[in-house]
Amino acid sequence: MNEKKIRYFISVAKEQNLHKSAKILGISSAALSKQISALEEEWGFELFKRTNKGLILTPAGTSMYRDIGHIVRFYNEALSKAFVENLKKERRIRIGVNSMGGSAILLNLLEKVQEENPEFIYEFVNYQMSKDEIKRIVKNFGEKMDIMFNVYDSSILNEHFCRMIQVSEQALACAVPRRHRLSGKSLISLEDLKGEKCLLLKNAEDNKGNLIEERLDELGIDVEEFDCYDENMFSYSEKNNQILFALSFWRPINPLIEIIPLDWDCIVPICLYYSKVANTDTLEFVKILKLYT
Question: 91-286, superfamily in CATH?
Fold first, then answer.
């Protein structure tokens, strides 16, 4: 069914004037006449009688004009239903991201997935990096967020019914207050940190499962542990003039803090967290992700 030709026929039948219909339709009279002739040839009968006073519907044309409205309506309804069914193929995944950075890592991964799995549609949901907020998110996976992008934190897995998939590894770096003696350096060594009390996430692990605190203790570097990587830790770091172990891609919220690379072989996992009872689309998405990580 050629909807455009049908629309042309209905207009000409209503106006009974080729030139007037052509003006309404925004095409030339010659083009409209050609379309009507093509329709008559396709259907196998004459639709109009051409007279000096204009176009007059033939009996067959009158019958067609009377019933064509029902056909168009049914056609539009069928098209609408098909469109809705096609939308059902889209599998929407809501991914939680925070203001600390790392979006490039996530976007590069999703682009790879999208090339071969275009049915997945992504919606990004911003969340605040705080212990209470993260607990609320993982406790209520599926309501506003299906997956959360964050640094590896064993406490999230221990306290809540969620799972994780590692999607990247990033070097440990130092968030340094600009008034600190090490501020302005292009690279910080472990020797530079001796005598400093540095801030570190409690039970933080490297990519081999080793506790980072134990490794630092062996090197004679003192640490003060905190419960959750959140934006307040930057303020705490600046206020107390303490170095905060961070990630190289993070953007410190506090402008009085700078991120400086650390000359150490400590690599930290970056993960996507999801519910153990996630919906089918989320579980299928995670299964596909594992092929790219």
Answer: Periplasmic binding protein-like II (3.40.190.10)
